[in-house]
Every structure is written in C-alpha cells, then in structure tokens.
Amino acid sequence: MKPDQFNIRHLAAMAAIVDQGSVSLAARAVNLTQPAVTQGIAKLEAQLGVALFERQPGGMMALEAARRLKPRVDVALRLIGSNRVTATQVRAFVALARSGSYAAAAGATGVAEPSLHRAVGDLGLAVGSRLVDRRGRGVMLTKAGVTLAQRLRLALAELRQGLEDLAELKGEEGGRILVGAMPLSRARLLPDAIGRFRGDAPQVAISVLEGSHAELVGPLREGEIDMMIGALRDPALAIDLDQRPLFEDRPTILARRGHALEAGWDADALRRYPWILPPEGTPLRQLWQAMFAELGGDAPPVPIECGSVMTIRQLLVGGDYLTLLSQDQLALELQAGLLSDIGPAPGSVSRTIGITTRADWRPTRLQQQFMTAIETAANVMAS
C-alpha cells in the first residue's frame, strides 16, 4: 500500500476512535454515521493487514497497530488540514506541483487530464483557496498552493513512515531509507554507513539523492528525503532543521602531481594560480576566504566555480589549478599519484560534518538504525 492510497476520512475515524474509545463518539467527531465509521475501519484494517481495535462491550480498545499509527495520522491530518480532502485530490495536486503542467502530471500518474483538473479544483474548494494560476501551457502554484503542496508532501512522508512502523510490527523485512548526500559524504562516509547498515538489514532499500545543500534542503523540508549528510550550516539559518554534528573535517590544498607548488608555497604563490571552488556562501568557499584572511591580503579571483568533485578532479589533472577539498573526496586519485596534497590550509580552516533532519521528524526504528550506522562510520573516519 502507498501512503497516497489511504482514505483520509477513514484515517480520521481511526484516530477519533483511539481518542474517544467508541465508534459512536468517533462518528460524531468526524461527522460520519456509525455504520460508515465501522465499515471504514474494516476497510482500513484490510488494507493494512492488521487489526487496529479489539471490539469490547464497553467500546473499542486500541491495539498496538493503532497506537503506533495514531501519532503519524494525527500529524498527517493536521498537515492536510481538512477531512473533506480525498486521497485522489492529494495525488493529483502533488503530481501537478511536481511536474508543473496537467499534461506532465497526467503522464506521471496515468490519470486523464480532465480528471486531474477536476481533482485539483475540488481540492481548492475543500481547503477554501485558489491553488493554481494558468501560465500558458503550464500552471504556476499560488502562494497558498505552494504552502499546501509542501504540507501534503510532509503528510505523505508521515504516512509512509506509519506504514513502515506497521511493517516492523508485522515482522516484515523491507522499507526504504531516503538519503540526501552532499559532496563530502559521497566518497567514504555514506558508502561505509550503507555497508554497515545493509549487513544488518539487507532487505531495506536505500535511495541516495545527490546534490548541494541548496538542492537538497527543499526535498528534506518537504519530506521527500529523510535526512541529508554533509557540511552543517549556521543554525540561525535553519531553525526548522535539526543538525547533528559527527566530526570536524579539515580541508587541504590539492593540485595535480608535478605542480610547481609541490616544492613549497607562500601566500603570493597561492594567488598566482587559478582556483576551482564551490559557489559563494558554501562552507568550503567561506573556509577558503578565511584561509586567505589568515595569510593576509586579498583573496585571488576564482575563475571556475564548481561543486562537482568529478569535474574538479579532471580539471586538476589537466591543468595548474588549485582547490580546497577533503583528502577523502579524492583519496583514490591521491593514492594513484594523479593528484598531490600540497599542504594543509593555514589557519583555523575546518568544517563540521553531520546529519541534518527536520526538527519535528520522528524516525522509524530502521531510520534510527541507519543514523547509528552513519555515526559509527564517522567515528571510524575521525579515529
């Protein structure tokens, strides 16, 4: 079962029964008839493959499955914001928000365009807001639409985690970990962590989305990835995120093997050669600027801005460029003699590497187990 296949009213009824302890009180709370609630719970239990309640003369007793699912459902319902919203409407609008046009959304979902139009229009009526504006052949989300799309993605992420909680309860192997990998984590930290985790949980799938902090923080905030690994940012700029430090990384100056600066260098020598660095505002660029502040004088121009380690490697090998990176990121090239570490960066040049998650995120057991594997791998790297 997928998280966007739930009947939202059935979820609301389930949560109300846990709170109220009876079908009759829950029916009043969610504005459904008692038979509708009873049928809805039966359908929900059939979909999930677990019993949610034990029927007793005095009411309904929530079983472990209901108790596990209830907190996730509460969060999802709060994010969705209305019991009038349907799963069909959620699927349609999330697809439209992701693709940018009804035609593309129809191709992605297999649903006819008229049906998508109707579902999105009905969703707007249910939440009382205009969600999209026409822009030629495509659409643009309104401010209310952008906010709702983010909330619906987070709701689906919460329900996905609820399904994984129930799978664990049923003793089923499986699930999926969604990881955002910033550049530094890809060379050693993340592969080591995946290897450790898979040794204990071989049936769990792992999806890795590569990108910079700027590219990954949006998917993280919208629940499309569970966590991201890499250089941490200023906490004041990420108050809705939780940043867990793992270790301090000290970058070094790298060049091709045989570069003139292998024999030694000073500040003036570093200014004579072209640099390859990530864009302004990234932690590594800030460390590079701090390095030249320590050396004294102005920082040289940066003719090539690039965050791709693969591209940087090829440019270094083929020219007299310099860069500032962690040794781990180009360890194979250093071992093979293609590149040379011409010296540690002077000054207090280091960056904190860690795990970033949403501040209100509650990991499943498997997600917590994966983060433990990351922490173990980080401890080995730091030792």
TrEMBL record:
<keyword id="KW-0804">Transcription</keyword>
<dbReference type="InterPro" id="IPR036388">
    <property type="entry name" value="WH-like_DNA-bd_sf"/>
</dbReference>
<dbReference type="Pfam" id="PF03466">
    <property type="entry name" value="LysR_substrate"/>
</dbReference>
<feature type="domain" description="HTH lysR-type">
    <location>
        <begin position="85"/>
        <end position="142"/>
    </location>
</feature>
<dbReference type="InterPro" id="IPR000847">
    <property type="entry name" value="LysR_HTH_N"/>
</dbReference>
<comment type="similarity">
    <text>Belongs to the LysR transcriptional regulatory family.</text>
</comment>
<dbReference type="Pfam" id="PF00126">
    <property type="entry name" value="HTH_1"/>
</dbReference>
<protein>
    <submittedName>
        <fullName>LysR substrate-binding domain-containing protein</fullName>
    </submittedName>
</protein>
<keyword id="KW-0805">Transcription regulation</keyword>
<dbReference type="InterPro" id="IPR005119">
    <property type="entry name" value="LysR_subst-bd"/>
</dbReference>
<dbReference type="InterPro" id="IPR036390">
    <property type="entry name" value="WH_DNA-bd_sf"/>
</dbReference>
<keyword id="KW-0238">DNA-binding</keyword>
<feature type="domain" description="HTH lysR-type">
    <location>
        <begin position="6"/>
        <end position="63"/>
    </location>
</feature>
